[in-house]
Every structure is written in C-alpha cells, then in structure tokens.
Amino acid sequence: MTALISAFPRRIAVLGSSGSIGKNALEVIAGSDGHLVPILLSVHRRTDILAEQVRQIIDRNAALPRWIAVTDPAADRSPLQQLPKTIEIRFGHDALCEMIRQTEIDTVLSAIVGSAGLTSTVAALEAGKTVALANKESLVMGGSVLTGFAEKHGGRLIPVDSEHSAVMQALQSWKMDSGQEKNSAEHSAGSAVEKIILTASGGPFRNRTLAELADVTVEDALAHPTWNMGKKITVDSATLINKALEIIEARWFFDIPAAKIGVMIHPQSLIHSMVEFVDGSVMAQMSPPDMRLPIQLALNYPFRFPGPSLKWDWTKSRMLEFYPPDYERFPAIPLGLEVAEKGGTAGAVINAANEVAAAAFLAGKLPFHKIVSICRTVLENHTFDPNPALEELPAVDRRARTEAEKMI
Ligand SMILES: NC(=O)c1ccc[n+]([C@@H]2O[C@H](COP(=O)([O-])OP(=O)(O)OC[C@H]3O[C@@H](n4cnc5c(N)ncnc54)[C@H](OP(=O)(O)O)[C@@H]3O)[C@@H](O)[C@H]2O)c1
C-alpha cells in the first residue's frame, strides 16, 4: 500500500502527443482520476492538435502541462498563442531533451515515430527516467548499447508495444515468486524460457499472393484490419517489417537469442504474444486490440487500475486462429530474425532503409514489394560493426538512408 501511495501522482512527459499513441496516452491520463499528470507534451509540427489537447485539459479542470516542446522550429506558431502563459514553450530537439531532464518528470512516454525518437529516448535514460517505450526504432537501432546505457544511468525501459507488453506480463507470471532468476536484469527472459512467440495479425495482405502484392496501393496498405495506427507503422504492418522490428526489439528487451523468438499469424489480434517455458507451459496475454491497455500498464507500472480500454465480452463465442507466416510472401520475418541475430549496426541499417523505403511508397515513388528488398540490399552492402558506440548510430543511420535513397 505504501509503495502504491508513494508512486502516485506520476508526472508524465508525452513525446509525440499529436500521434496515435500520444492521443491514446492522453485518453488514459484523462481517465486516471489524477493518478497520472501530463507535465510535458511534444509535437513535431501539428501545433493545432497540441493547442486542442491543452484546451481539453483546461476544460476538464485538470493540472496543466508545465512544458511544451515543438521539435520543428518552422512549425506554425499561431495556435500556440492562445495557450496559458504559465506553460513554457520551446522549439527544437535540443530544447525537448533539456526539458526531459527536469527532475519533476517521473516517466517519459517515448512515442515519436521513427529514428527521430532516438535522441529523446537517450536523453530520458541518461537522466535516469523510466521510459515507456513505444518508439521501438530506438531499441532496434541501439540494441544492447541502449539497454547497457539505460542500466548505467539508472534509467528503466517498460514496453508499450502490445506484443512486448504481453511478453513482459507472461514472464512476470513466473518470475514474480520463483526467485529462480533473481540476479537477472528486470525483463530478461532467463533460462526457464523456451521460446517467445510474437503474434501478428498478418496485416491487410495476409491472403494476397506474391503476384498480387506487386501492385497494392497506398490506400490498400493503410487499411489495417484490426489496429488503427499512424501511417508509418501501418505500412510497416502491411510489409510485416513491423514484426521484424518487433523481433529485434524483443531480442534486446528480453535479452533472448533470436533463435528463441518465433512469430505466429493470429488474425483476430486478441492474443498479443506468448511465452513458452521449458516445461511446455505457454502463457499468453489476451485483450481486445486497443493500445490504451499497454500504454496504461506502462504508465502505471507495476500497478493496475481500471481504465478506458475495451473489455472482452465473455458471453460471446470466439474463434482464435494461428498460422505460421509465409516467409516467401513476407520475407521481412526472416530478415528480422537475421538482424536480431547479428546485432551491432544491423538494426540501425535496416531501420533507416525501411524508413526511407516506406516514405517513398507512401509518396507513390516505390512499389510496395520493393520495400523489404531495399532493406535487405542496404543491409547486405553496409560495412558491419559488431560494437558501435551510441554516438555513432546517427552516422550509421545517415549512410543507410543515402544508400536506400540511391535505390529509389
Ligand atoms: N500507433 C500504434 O498503435 C503503435 C503501436 C505500437 C508501437 N507504436 C510505435 O509508436 C511510435 C509512434 O507511432 P504512432 O503510430 O503514434 O505515430 P504517428 O501517429 O505518426 O505520430 C508520430 C508522432 O511523432 C511526432 N514526430 C514525427 N516526426 C517527428 C520528428 N522528426 N521529431 C519529433 N517528433 C516527430 C509527430 O508529431 P506531428 O504530429 O507534429 O508531426 C507525432 O506526434 C512509433 O515508433 C510506432 O512504431 C505505435
């Protein structure tokens, strides 16, 4: 009880508040009865959404944010003029990183999209904060360098991705009382784990043939069957590169070899992932597909409270299906396993190549089926470094982008 009282109210920095995760997080915060307080908000350029978010906080008579960061200095500043003068507003990534270091901030929700989220994730970990990590790209790029950095500075990573949140919960079911892995890192899978099985909806093209994948449109790719997300991750879910990034993320989050990570297609998106233990027992986490649940768990971690996320209607029949992924139609999965195995600079390279290729597809400059092949070629052509320093990653990212751009 004392631990619970001293853990709240918790002051949350919501990075990327105008995005899909950011908006869901603000709903979770609004429904938290004052347990969670939004102390810092950041957007890149959608200042109109930001101003509306602050207006809604004022309408609820809730505590106002103290800081706002707009990372694109060229963003339209006019919507910000109506904001209360008590809020400090600053521009640029450096300003955001300085704000993140404020001692009043307890938890940083890292929900900026893409490699742009790396510097703020690093700043939060360096300041010893708890980071609720939606920006999987940080961990894909940084790998063990990032987890080692977090440990060194007393920062802590809590997963927001629904799959990793599911794995964390499944692992806790056993770790909590056993003490078997007492000295291992907080989320490490440990020797009792046989396999982590990440589930994937299969995206909008689950049933398309290889030939049909050649001419899918942007509109087709953005029509995800079960999740409503930002554009980049929706395209990543259609190519299944998102699952590749999640395999790499799982490798580092749970300190588990790539050979012990598997993927199953589960079209209903009700089981968010599973852990198989060495004795054959499998623990799965189930809930309707609603990102507010893993966000809420990460922000309140390790406590659970009622919240706004959808509940399952247990009076209705349900079918749960599982299929092994087709590696020929979706070569992103073996690519992800390979990168997770390699480590080093491989994660930063595949991430950068994918960001360039996915953006080109969204801009109508690249056919859908070329996205993953560009990632593979850029990966194969790069000069691999097994032990890059954190400071070297932006340069690795830039080189991979240039290579990918040349191929478009
Ligand atoms: N959406 C989901 O359900 C989901 C699930 C699991 C994990 N994730 C992960 O969560 C992260 C966010 O995804 P999302 O779907 O919420 O993305 P999104 O809807 O596209 O939102 C992206 C957010 O990042 C900001 N942003 C964009 N470029 C930026 C830059 N260069 N510098 C600083 N901020 C920038 C955007 O600001 P502006 O709006 O001002 O441009 C926006 O607030 C991604 O890493 C994704 O993989 C998402």
Question: Outline of this structure?
Answer:
With 408 residues, the chain is an alpha/beta fold. The chain is built from 16 helices and eleven strands.
Features:
408 residues; alpha/beta; Rossmann fold; Rna Polymerase Sigma Factor, Chain: A; 2 domains; seven-stranded parallel sheet; four-stranded mixed sheet; 11 strands; globular; binds NADP nicotinamide-adenine-dinucleotide phosphate
Radius of gyration: 21 Å
Range of strand content? 5-15%
The first-level CATH class of the largest domain is given as Mainly Alpha
CATH architectural label of the largest domain = Orthogonal Bundle
Helical fraction: 40-55%
Bound molecules: NADP nicotinamide-adenine-dinucleotide phosphate
Can you count the beta strands? 11
Number of helices: 16
Low-confidence stretches: none
Overall domain count: 2
How does this structure look, described?
The chain has 408 residues and is α/β, with parallel strands linked by helices. It folds into two domains: 158 residues, Rossmann fold (3-Layer(aba) Sandwich); 229 residues, RNA polymerase sigma factor, region 2, helix turn helix motif (Rna Polymerase Sigma Factor, Chain: A, Orthogonal Bundle), CATH 1.10.1740.10. Helices cover 43% and strands 14% of the residues. The strands form two sheets. A seven-stranded parallel β-sheet has the order 4-3-2-1-5-6-7, with helices on both faces. Helix 4 runs parallel beside helix 5, helix 5 runs parallel beside helix 6 and helix 14 packs across helix 16. The longest helix is centred in the middle third of the chain and has 18 residues. The radius of gyration is 21 Å and the shape is globular. Bound molecules: NADP nicotinamide-adenine-dinucleotide phosphate (NAP).
